[in-house]
Amino acid sequence: MAPPADARLQLEAVRLTALYGRRAVVKDVSILFPAHSVTAVIGPSGCGKSTFLRCLNRMHELSEGGWVTGTVLLDGADVYDAGVDPVQLRRRIGMVFQRPTPFPTMTIYDNVAAGLRVNGGRSRGEVDAAVEQALRRAALWDEVKDRLKKSALDLSGGQQQRLCIARALAPEPEVLLLDEPTASLDPAGTQRIEELCHELKHRYTIVIVTHNLQQAGRVSDYTAFFYLGDLVEVGRTEELFTKPAQEQTEAYITGRFG
Amino acid sequence: MSARRLRRRLVSGLMTTLVGVLSFVAVLALAVILGYLVVKGASSLDWNFFVKNPVPAGQAGGGVANAIVGTVIIVGVAALIGLPIGIGTGLYLAEYGSGRFGWIVRFVADVLNGTPSIVVGIFAWTWLVRPMGHFSALAGSVALAVLMVPMIARTTEEMVRLVPHSLREAALALGYPRWRTSLRIVARTALAGILTSCLVGIARIAGETAPLLFTALGNLNFSSSILQPMQTLSLQVFTYGTGPFDEWHRLAWAAALVLMGLVLLLSLTARWALRSRHGAAR
Q1: How many independent structural domains does chain B possess?
Q2: What are the residues whose beta carbons fall under 8 Å from the beta carbon of B5, sequence distance 6 or more?
Q3: With contacts defined as CB-CB under 8 Å, which chain A residues touch B191?
């Protein structure tokens, strides 16, 4: 099942294998992430879905013993090419983690501005504007606009996670990687993040790892099912959930294992 | 109640009492020392004690202003030398010290940490006092700095390691280079802990005497030149306490009390700083 032909193929993994030392945890995965869509990556714990996500912005290689074969293409360019600076690459691919990770010594404002300042070359007014825009896109502006100079730790868990999304959005990335972003949130916080996915996909290409099948069904256009490091199946979400091509996929989504 | 349960209860009660008594003995020792210091020293603490220099031996009156100023100078210079090196080493060990070189540095620091301070003193004497031809406060500061560095390095490393790995990853994923992640995010987050370890380190060396005996030497007069012999509170306690005059003994107790108070104050400040960090970052 191919994505629509008119979509710009922004992000693509080609025969990607991720290893820890000599142990492969993601095996020979090829997959397209169509631009301006949400792709959910699902699978049981330990199937390599988080590791796979971390290969896309070259975070995996920072782990002890982590390395990859194969490659990832962003707008057709190889992100594992020797000439590519992974630090620069990570400014084009934002990432949000399982647990909210606001910088505890910084204010709400400084947290959002952190990724802008590390790039440098922006005036105070430009940073102000970018911070407001990022907070608006993360649907947090109205809640924090009067206390931007307060510590980020004063926010609730759900707000902290949206702050982290705003922080990832501020440097204007092209891709947003979400690694189980609602795993530590209550239902209300989860719903806010899911609504955000719908709004944000008009501007960004989103890949979301989740162990929650209902969430995958609610937020994604495409779904990829991983099992034991293999990409078993990928397709339009409604098709994958209603008539999966692989028996393993069907067994997983009907709750027979995992 | 079965006999077995009864025995368990008895043993449990006995053990709890035993460790309670032992803790009491430990605290008692500190309380006795502090109490005795106050009894013997407090009566000599007057304005003159802090602002006057010593008077010729045998005469009454006089103070230890020279020792107080000397302690501040010698410990201050030692901190100036020792803290940057110690903090830098600690940061390196925590952030980049997973390899073989890190292992060696850690090992050397641990050995240095256990080195008797008088051994460090004799090295300072051989390498600084002898070439310079005379005793000096600077040599004393260097000796104290050498004692300080491994202590600060190891505690800084511990504090930096307490910073959650997820914060490092968040910064790296945001496009922070590794060194900026270490300084802007990790070291900043550990700052209160690092400051605490500095205060504890300063408190530890403030009372050192042995390495100063053959470096700073001591000085019965006021001196503020770091190239000359200088008095410190710890040296004052040593000279006056072992001297022949009752007046000296009296001043020695008072000096000991002031030194103890100074160390206590540093320790309390350190505790307070650490607690205010755990409270919240406000």
Answers
A1: 1
A2: none
A3: 105
Q: Is residue B262 part of a domain?
A: yes
Residue A1 lies in a domain: no
Q: Which candidate from A87, A103, A115 shows the least CB-CB separation from B167? A: A103
In chain B, the largest separation of any two C-alpha atoms, in whole Å, equals 80
CA angle B207, B212, B215 (to 5 degrees): 160
pLDDT of residue A124: 87
Our count of domains for chain A comes to 1
- Please say if the pLDDT value at position B252 is more than 70: yes
Q: The CATH number of the domain where B274 resides is what?
A: 1.10.3720.10
- Check CB contact of A87 with chain B, cutoff 8 Å: yes
Note every long-range contact of B260-269, with CB atoms under 8 Å and residues 24 or more positions apart, other chains counting: B260/B33, B260/B34, B260/B37, B262/B71, B262/B203, B262/B206, B262/B233, B263/B203, B263/B206, B263/B207, B266/B199, B266/B200, B266/B202, B266/B203, B266/B206, B267/B199, B267/B200, B267/B203, B269/B199
- Label residue B280 by pLDDT band (50, 70, 90): very low
Chain A residues 99-128 with CB within 8 Å of chain B: 99, 101, 103-105, 114-115, 118-119
Q: Which residue has the tokens 């000796």?
A: B143
Q: What is the mean pLDDT of residues A166-175?
A: 92
Residues in chain B, how many? 282
Element (H, E) at A26: strand A23-33
ipTM: 0.88
Residues of B in contact with A62 (CB under 8 A): 169, 172
User: Which of A59, A98, A103, A207 is the mutation pick for testing B, counting most B CBs within 10 A?
Assistant: A103
Residue B123 parent element (H or E):
helix B117-124
Q: Write out pLDDT tens, residues A15-74.
A: 999 999 999 999 999 999 999 999 999 999 888 999 999 999 999 998 889 999 999 999
**Count helices and strands in chain A by DSSP H and E runs:** 10, 10
